[in-house]
Predict the structure.
Amino acid sequence: MVTAPDIPGLNLDWLNVDTEQGMTAEPGRSGMTLQQINQSMYGADDFDEVRNRVMVPRGSAPDPRSAIHARQYHYKGDVWSESAMLLYEEAQQRQWASAEDIPWHEVKELPDDLEMAMCTLCTFLTQVEFIAGDIPGRFLEQVPADFFEAQLFLGTQVMDEARHQDVFRKRIFVNGGGMSEAGFGAVALLAIDDFTEMTAVLHLFAEGLVQSLFRMGELISQNDAEKRMFRLSAQDESRHLAFGVTHVKYVVENEPWRKEELHAHLDLQERVAAQSQQASLTTNPLTGEALAILAGGGIEHMDEGYKMVMQMRRKQMVEYSHRLKVVGLDRSERMAPELRELLGDVA
Ligand SMILES: [Fe+2]
Ligand SMILES: [Fe+2]
């Protein structure tokens, strides 16, 4: 309790504001992270619904004049992900820049088919990354301040996707190639209207496919610059997947009545993926051919390349299936048959 001097014209009531005081925090192994300061009433451990529907930072005392933010969610389960806080800190620590962290001078002249294939793959990826940033960006304002960690994480994701878009765009122009055909598919994802739907469709499903694609990209890279471009991007995608897995798991465990809704979102996405010409890979048939040329080492070895593409598709489904197990959604009976087939005995 602070004894405020009685000075005419000053209002020093805030010296005795009704919030928790007296907490101290020490830097941990990774410095002064959010984990170090999320203590006592300033954490988000013991409440499931926003404590104030007005725009106030978690733990502060709401000014009675504060306005309600009508577009925000009210429940923890709407946006919460147990890993958001740590993933946000990790994203801060592992930022990279395509301007300087990619050894661009390692990109050397390539035969036309390989150059064109890489540029076609990268054209597709710039489209993918544009959408991957756009979707979470639309939900930033809907995260209530009581659960701000989810908003901070989404901010890092938007930055990651911007970097992915720019690194693939740069690769298109550094070695005599150019943009390829694009524009088909994936825009349907922009119709997503709910945070959990977004997370199930984007983080749990679509970005998982993209991450496997990046891992294959690293294997079929023609030089160290491309390898690094795919490796660093895959590292960022791991965080996006982790956010999605922990959010959906939270919803499945705390709001089990939403399970059927989650299944319905995935039913739809799996069907779209299965019906696309390159089942489970992309909605763009050019990309599968480009991958096969890169994997085979040239247009004359595309058959060999396709074997590797098939292995990647299988891996995409094995990893998706693993994520489903972790979140507690059993889709063994309802996965789209074309995708299930790729799993073989693993299903
Ligand atoms: Fe990305
Ligand atoms: Fe991503």
Q: What stands out?
A: Residues 132, 161, 207, 237, 240 surround fe (ii) ion (ligand 2) (CB under 6 Å). The mean pLDDT is 92.
